[in-house]
């Protein structure tokens, strides 16, 4: 099958650059793109992960309680959720394809089976290094995770949740093929304010219709626009692309944390939230208050 041929063509079990460039065979291969590589997480990634989750700006884009994680919370989240999930092949570190630099994290969690609807998972993603926001890295990482989810994990659908005040992430998700399926409002008692959350999803059929091997060979159009906006926007239409310049630094949504990682392990998983960190919901792993919200991981 054409897709399987393409997957084998991308496989590179060796010659994977390490953090300083060069090659490092100790990194198990997962999936390669033009801009980023998905690799298994290693314990030494913990320090960067803790730094990302302690950042108030990232917390505002990803976490349902809008609060950064403490050092104890982020360490526990990484050790008890991220590392085990990565070992099972459902969570990946995002690295720069050229330099090997660690940039973020992404995952597919909360897999459920619904009669007559097949298997569905929640997408999460976070680009923690803010100096690379707006370069299309998050968009490509999202596409690679969906390729993995539909081709290797045999999922029929991937869901996510994203905050309305993260237009860049919304734009990036739409660019990859996600569609808005609903919306809900959460009340943040501690902050005395409402949090508006969009629910998005994409099916395997919709994804493969948009991303055939021929299109993967060329650069992503608008790849430079992938950052998640940190500014609040009053409204984002549920239909049509909002790739304009509302996205974080340029209309791209991928950059940042689109993790929706929000939901901590003790919180209820917010149903259809596919982003790892708010773009991904970290619904089950994290510290309390973390709920998937807009694709983060």
Report on the structure:
- There is one protein chain.
- Helix 2 packs across helix 4 and helix 5 packs across helix 6 (about 165-175).
- It is built from eight helices and eight strands, in the order αββαααβββαβαββαα.
- Strands 1-2-3-4-5-6-8-7 form an eight-stranded mixed beta sheet, with helices on both faces.
- The chain has helices spanning about 1-10, 45-55, 55-60, 70-85, 135-150, 165-175, 205-210, 215; strands at about 30, 35-40, 90-95, 100-115, 120-125, 155-165, 180-190, 195-205.
- The radius of gyration is 17 Å and the shape is globular.
- The protein starts with a helix and ends in an 81-residue tail after the last helix.
- The chain has one domain (about 1-225): Gcn5-related N-acetyltransferase (GNAT) (Aminopeptidase, 3-Layer(aba) Sandwich).
- It is of the alpha+beta class.
Number of domains as seen in the coordinates: 1
- Straight-line distance between termini: 31 Å
- Predict the CATH topology: Aminopeptidase
**How would a crystallographer describe the biggest sheet?**
8 strands, mixed
CATH class: Alpha Beta
Largest sheet strand order: 1-2-3-4-5-6-8-7
The tally of helices reads 8
Observed structural traits:
single chain; 297 residues; alpha+beta; Aminopeptidase; eight-stranded mixed sheet; 8 helices; 8 strands; 26% helix; 22% strand; disordered N terminus; disordered C terminus
Give a topology summary.
Blueprint: H1 2-10, E1 29-32, E2 36-39, H2 46-53, H3 56-62, H4 71-87, E3 91-96, E4 102-114, E5 118-127, H5 137-151, E6 157-163, H6 167-176, E7 179-188, E8 193-203, H7 204-210, H8 213-216
Parallel strand pairs: 5-6
Antiparallel strand pairs: 1-2, 2-3, 3-4, 4-5, 6-8, 7-8
Helix pairs in contact: 2-4, 5-6
């Amino acid at each position: 099958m054409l897709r399987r041929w393409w997957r084998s063509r991308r496989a590179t079990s060796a010659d994977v650059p390490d953090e300083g460039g060069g090659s490092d065979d100790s990194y198990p291969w997962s999936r390669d793109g033009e801009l980023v590589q998905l690799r298994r997480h290693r314990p030494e990634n913990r320090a960067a992960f803790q730094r990302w989750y302690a950042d108030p700006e990232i917390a505002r884009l990803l976490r349902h309680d809008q609060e950064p994680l403490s050092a104890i919370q982020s360490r526990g989240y990484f050790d008890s959720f991220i590392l085990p999930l990565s070992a099972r092949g459902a969570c990946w570190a995002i690295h720069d394809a050229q330099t090997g630099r660690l940039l973020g994290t992404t995952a597919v969690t909360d897999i459920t089976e619904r009669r007559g609807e097949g298997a569905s998972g929640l997408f999460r993603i976070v680009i923690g290094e803010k100096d690379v926001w707006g370069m299309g890295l998050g968009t490509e990482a999202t596409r690679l995770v969906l390729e993995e989810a539909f081709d290797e994990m045999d999922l029929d659908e991937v869901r996510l949740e994203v905050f309305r005040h993260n237009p860049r992430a919304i734009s990036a998700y739409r660019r990859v093929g996600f569609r808005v399926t609903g919306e809900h409002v959460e009340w943040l008692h501690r902050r005395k304010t409402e949090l508006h959350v969009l629910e998005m999803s994409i099916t395997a059929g919709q994804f493969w219709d948009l991303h055939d091997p021929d299109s993967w060979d060329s650069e992503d159009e608008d790849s430079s626009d992938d950052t998640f906006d940190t500014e609040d926007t009053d409204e984002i239409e549920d239909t049509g692309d909002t790739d304009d310049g509302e996205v974080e630094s340029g209309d791209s949504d991928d950059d940042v944390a689109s993790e929706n990682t929000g939901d901590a392990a003790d919180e209820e998983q917010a149903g259809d939230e596919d982003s790892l960190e708010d773009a991904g919901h970290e619904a089950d792993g994290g510290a309390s208050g973390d709920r998937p919200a807009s694709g983060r991981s």
